[in-house]
Design goal:
With 317 residues, the protein is mostly helical. 68% of the residues lie in helices and 0% in strands. It has helices at 7-22, 26-29, 33-54, 61-88, 100-108, 116-134, 140-157, 163-178, 182-185, 193-200, 211-228, 233-244, 246-259, 274-297, 301-304. It is globular and about 65 Å long. 35% of the residues are buried. The longest helix has 28 residues, at 61-88. The two termini are 25 Å apart.
Length: 317
């Protein structure tokens, strides 16, 4: 990994973040519970594998901790806001009584909403850095065993992360450290669609925490990668751009998925829910990028993201 963007990886990130947004829209997801269960089998595992694969630990401790701090800042701001809004709005995960203790508990121990991913990313990343630098003289397999043990303690003893989620992150670490490229392991193949359909037909496999679910994660990534080279170049450039900014969508999309509930009465005529999905997705994606653009323009990005500008220029050609 030399810092150069990998189009296939940005494309996978784009697909997964858009699926996350789609099935966080309650009006739509409740119409298709089976599709939601299928998507939930693979979309966050793919993200976690990519997170472990892409995390760079070849840094001095001060540099690495600074990078983690600039993930924590937007996480802290948005998780706090999410908890407060959950106390005000009529949402599913209703907060009955706000308190400092509750805020700290949600922030450091058990986050609400999609921000659990950033919480897991931070904890798994810190332990990954610590183990691989503390045990740098160990063989790779030994370091991976120590890292997996650390994740087990974090999950079972401390109850801070889900062990299966941490293991998906560990899988990404193992892939990166093995020296294999991502697309060498996740071989693009449209033929993977056959076993994917067969496994997906069994409800017992629609769980990312089962061996069938693990196979579905691999097969979905393989099928999606096989489509990357055949999609139109314009769509590919858009997917690459979205994939480069998944943090923006992860951080700000809950604002708009909550606001989208106000649109539901306007789309009661459409029993499929796809009209609502289309409008809500456009609102969420453009709104999230709009907030990021405003933060860049008013000069807040150095204090929120730790960089002068978050959004990169989009080149349509």
């Amino acid at each position: 990994m030399n810092g150069k963007r990998i189009g296939e990886i940005d494309y996978l990130k784009c697909v997964c973040i858009l699926l996350m947004i789609a099935f966080h829209l309650v009006f739509f997801s409740e119409k298709y519970p089976l599709a939601k269960q299928w998507v939930y089998t693979f979309h966050m595992p793919v993200f976690l594998i990519l997170s472990g694969y892409l995390m760079q630990i070849e840094k001095r401790p001060s540099e690495f901790l600074r990078a983690m701090a600039w993930i924590f800042v937007p996480y802290m701001v948005m998780e706090t806001g999410y908890v407060v809004m959950s106390a005000v709005l009529p949402v599913r995960d209703k907060v009955d009584c706000l308190s400092v203790g509750l805020m700290l508990e949600k922030l450091f121990l058990h986050p609400m909403g999609p921000y659990w991913y950033l919480h897991t990313y931070l904890l798994c990343g810190l332990i990954y850095y610590g183990v691989f630098h503390w045990a740098e003289k160990m063989r790779l397999v030994s370091r991976l065993v120590v890292l997996g043990t650390g994740y087990a303690v974090l999950a079972d003893a401390c109850q801070l992360v889900s062990l299966p989620n941490a293991l998906y992150f560990l899988a990404g670490v193992a892939l990166r450290r093995s020296g294999m490229t991502f697309t060498s392991f996740f071989c693009p193949s449209v033929w993977a669609l056959i076993p994917l359909v067969w496994l997906s037909a069994d409800m017992a496999n629609l769980n990312r925490f089962t061996w069938g679910g693990v196979a579905i994660v691999y097969l979905v990534a393989s099928v999606l990668l096989s489509l990357y080279t055949v999609i139109p170049a314009g769509i590919r450039r858009v997917s690459d751009y979205v994939g480069r900014h998944t943090l923006v969508l992860l951080v700000f999309s809950p604002v708009f998925t909550m606001l989208s509930k106000g649109l539901v009465p306007l789309f009661m005529f459409d029993e499929t829910g796809f009209c609502f999905l289309f409008v809500a997705m456009i609102l969420t994606v453009t709104g999230s990028f709009g907030i990021a653009w405003c933060i860049d323009r008013v000069g807040v990005s150095p204090y929120f993201w730790g960089k002068k500008q978050m959004l990169q220029p989009f080149h349509p050609k």
